[in-house]
Specification:
The protein has about 850 residues and is an alpha+beta fold. The chain has 34 helices and 19 strands. Helix content is about 50%, strand content about 10%. The chain has a five-stranded mixed beta sheet with strand order 6-5-4-7-8, with helices on both faces. It has a four-stranded antiparallel beta sheet with strand order 17-18-14-19. A hairpin with a 4-residue loop joins strand 5 and strand 6. It is globular. The two termini are about 55 Å apart.
């Protein structure tokens, strides 16, 4: 279903309907007709009805289907369509893979599908330019509808609603029927077809081929050719069309299809198979699970193939239950001399550990092989790797057998590529793969979180956000939605007349964060908006969400660390994202205070001090910079003394602050313009500071020039430990892309080397903890910081050993320094 050209009945009803929307960009307009042509050539029904919107056509067809008792699934991310949900009609958002049935609507909105239209009329819809009742947001609307049931009943009792919001409701009563009519999806559009008519036709392959060639859709062209080839061979006997591979030991393991995987019929057959595998050198493993959360989801099956070519696929069932299967396979899975291969072995390790199987002998993870070869590639999931390296999309990757087959094929391709580049091979085998079980232990350990403290903090943030909203409305002289870029744009630029510093690609004045930050230097409303955004994100991401993420089985929060995401080699985390908790400010500190030690224990934080500046000193070889670190000077005071030409003891706080901005700004490739903005000084003054800095630290300038030249020549830069960071835009004719790549070339070796150093530290500390059976465990890694849980009486000994191991990492010509602290919670320790 597509919207037709021209106005709809809603424009007749409400002349301001969608009036704020800019026209469709020309680049998008040009894509509509080819899109229609491809859909029709595919044989898919395409419907576009003048005078109504696509939603109305969907609503009408859904109503017809419901009348016939048909189950209906609507693919949409639009909340307005929740009004269509009923016992037979469900929504699915394929971007997030979430489904909204009747229960889901109640859980998401707090009201039933029948109340959605009334809800929308009250809160309005910024996208459609329907204002709703001023100052009435989702919380108030839900409260009213729970109390009064319907909008009509609420209006009947409007006199009972107290306060300013009650006045707003009573003032809006004449408009509410119109808002409701505009936001109601029509379910009686006259159509010339019924749901039964919506059948796909045979695709027009000739037309598709022509369209795909014109659009250069190479993968789809290849699929057309593949389908044509399969069709032409359909007269062959079945065994010739689909031969089942039977690989010999060490040969063809990557080519086996799921058809070559046997499924044992009994536990005796499985045990006999396992016994016959004695002496195998390697096996490839994949799991089937009910979801991606190893703490909550269930293991439902697995597949494995040994280097002998023997392969099994075992969906768990009554005659082959999970516990019995794992017990039979335990000798293989826990055997450290049998090399394990897979994709995302950390997940497999954690999932199996929950079932009492300690997977050992981790050898090759194709996700990490791909990541080490090119960390700038956006995705390293199995489907993306198959498409990138095998040149095809592999369907049904939910099947463990397909995963094993794909993993073997990828390993056969990626391993030789790593072998050809010794620094990358070493990085993979000595840092990334050994880190997998370390991260798995950290994840399973988890961290205690004080839910009551977070709930209290959330309530305070809610009150503060409400206060900020009222202040913003007062400053603007009207009520508006602080989260709406369009409305904020109108307030800042049209009403208040603030200067337009930057425009969006559509030519509209920008309300992006960096623009608001610059405006906030001179104007109060942008400053308030930034505070509101920060607190709102803190509330939704941490104080509201963290208590929900506590695992019932452990009472702890178990974040997930990702090795194959960032370009620089740094770890990232999710559920929760520990890296994004604000470091500065009271609110961020309060979130950290909710991460607590159990009774009798302390949290110990060990944080590398100014590690990237120390790496800069090493890489540049600048004598003055190295001397400052070797003498354990305050590097920012030392820089201030050099740049401002004063004695070290005469440096004041303002000079030190400026030197700190210069130190960190330059390693991030900051320009004089950027430095001027950070320091709040004219561009000429910032340029003078940079010139003074480079005059005093000439080695730094030489390093930067040398690095840019090297990057332009070879297309990548490297860390101290050989990690390659590719820079595809380094020779671009586009000045912005090229300058961004040059800034990245300067910073990436420092960020990447810092990432490698803390990974090496984690490996050494984990080994020390395991060997000494020390009564402590690593529970978090955040930026340049490691956090441990330790018995209180052993905290001093742990502190000494952690500092010793973290500062003993080889490779730097300047000393590493580590700040260590302890406390009952993370805020005290950090």
């Amino acid at each position: 279903m597509f919207d037709a050209k021209g106005k709809t009945f809603r424009d007749e009803l409400f002349e301001r309907y969608k009036a704020q929307r800019p026209p469709m960009p020309d680049d998008l307009v040009r894509q509509i007709e080819p899109l229609y042509a491809i859909i029709q050539a595919m044989g898919l029904p395409l419907i576009s009805i003048e005078g109504v919107e696509a939603d109305d056509v969907i609503g009408t067809l859904a109503a017809q289907a419901v009348a016939e008792g048909m189950a209906t699934l609507i693919s949409t991310g639009d909340k307005d369509l929740a009004q269509l949900v009923n016992g037979n009609t469900t929504l699915i958002n394929t971007m997030t893979n979430t489904v909204l049935d009747r229960k889901g609507v109640v859980e998401k909105f707090g009201i039933t599908p029948e109340q959605i239209i009334d809800y929308l009329a009250l809160v309005g819809d910024a996208v459609d330019n329907v204002p709703g009742v001023p100052k009435v947001g989702p919380v108030t609307a839900v409260k009213w509808l729970k109390q009064y049931g319907t909008l009509d009943n609420l209006v009947a009792h409007a006199a009972d609603v107290p306060g300013k919001v009650g006045e707003n409701l009573r003032a809006a009563i004449p408009q509410l029927p119109l808002y409701k009519q505009v936001l109601t999806i029509k379910c009686d559009v006259p159509l010339t077809l019924t749901p039964h008519d919506l059948q796909p036709r045979v695709p027009d392959t000739a037309a598709l081929r022509q369209l795909y060639q014109r659009m250069e859709f190479k993968r789809w062209l290849a699929e057309l050719d593949k389908d044509a080839k399969a069709h032409s061979s359909s007269s062959l006997p079945a065994e010739e069309r689909h031969p089942t591979p039977s690989p010999s030991r060490g040969e063809g393991r990557g080519e086996g299809s799921p058809a070559s995987f046997a499924t044992p019929s009994s536990i005796n057959e499985l045990q006999n198979w396992t016994t016959a595998q004695q002496g195998v050198i390697a096996l490839t493993l994949a799991l089937e699970t009910s979801g991606a959360d190893y703490m909550r989801d269930e293991l439902t099956g697995l597949a494995l193939r040994t280097d002998s070519g023997e392969a099994l696929h075992i969906p768990f069932r009554d005659e082959l239950p999970c516990a019995v299967v794992l017990d039979a396979l335990r000798p293989l899975l826990q055997n450290s001399t049998v090399e394990k291969r897979g994709h995302d072995l950390k997940f497999a390790l954690n999932m199996l550990a929950r079932y009492g199987v300690l997977l050992d002998g981790l050898g090759h993870d194709v996700m990490l092989e791909s990541y080490v070869l090119d960390s700038t590639a956006t995705r390293h999931d199995l489907a993306s790797l198959c498409e990138k390296y095998l040149g095809r999309r592999i369907e049904n990757l939910a099947s463990a057998a397909q995963q094993v087959a794909a993993t073997d094929q990828l390993h056969a391709l990626l391993r030789p590529k790593l072998e050809k580049i010794p620094p990358l091979r070493k990085l993979f085998s000595e840092i990334e793969m050994p880190l997998v079980p370390v991260l798995a232990r950290i994840e399973r350990a988890g961290v205690l979180v004080d839910a009551a403290l977070l709930h209290a903090h959330s309530a305070e943030l809610a009150a503060r956000l409400n206060q900020l909203e009222q202040q913003a409305h007062h400053m603007a002289g009207q009520v508006f939605n602080l989260s709406s870029p369009q409305q904020l744009q109108g307030i800042l630029y049209d009403k208040l007349g603030l200067p337009v510093l930057k425009k969006t690609p559509k030519g509209q004045p920008s309300t992006a964060e960096e623009v608001l930050q610059e405006l906030a230097l001179d104007y109060p409303l942008p400053k308030l908006i930034l505070e509101q955004r920060t607190l709102s994100k803190l509330k939704s991401t941490y104080t509201d969400r963290l208590p929900e993420q506590i695992a019932p089985a452990t009472g702890r929060v178990h974040t997930r660390y990702h090795q194959a995401v960032t370009a620089t080699g740094r770890l990232s985390s999710s559920d929760p994202n520990l890296q994004n908790i604000p470091v500065r400010g009271e609110e961020g500190k309060r979130v950290r205070a909710a991460f607590i030690a159990p009774p009798g224990c302390l949290l110990l934080s060990a944080d590398y001090s100014q590690i990237e500046l120390r790496i800069m000193a090493h890489l540049s070889g600048d004598a003055r910079l190295k001397r400052a670190f070797e003498g354990e000077q305050d590097i920012h005071k030392a820089t201030a003394a050099e740049v401002f030409g004063v004695k070290l003891e005469q440096v004041n706080e303002e000079q030190r602050r400026a030197a700190k901005v210069i130190n960190f700004g330059l390693i991030y490739g900051m320009s004089a313009f950027g430095l001027a903005k950070q320091l709040g000084v004219p561009r000429e003054a910032a340029q003078d500071y940079m010139n003074l800095y480079f005059a005093r630290y000439p080695g730094v300038q030489s390093f930067m020039e040398r690095t840019r030249a090297q990057a332009r020549q070879q297309g990548y830069v490297e860390t101290l430990y050989g990690r390659r960071l590719y820079l595809p835009g380094i020779n671009s004719r586009n000045a912005q892309l090229r300058q961004y790549a040059e800034r990245t070339a300067i910073n990436a070796p420092m960020q990447g080397s810092a990432a490698d150093i803390i990974k090496l530290a984690m490996l050494r500390i984990d080994a020390w903890l395991q060997q000494n059976k020390f009564n402590a465990r690593m529970i978090m890694q955040v930026h340049d910081e490691l956090v441990f849980e330790v018995q209180e009486q052993e905290s001093a000994q742990l502190a000494d050993n952690v500092r010793r191991l973290m500062t003993a990492i080889e490779g730097l010509s300047v000393p590493l320094a580590v700040d260590v602290g302890t406390g009952r919670n993370w805020a005290e320790a950090h």
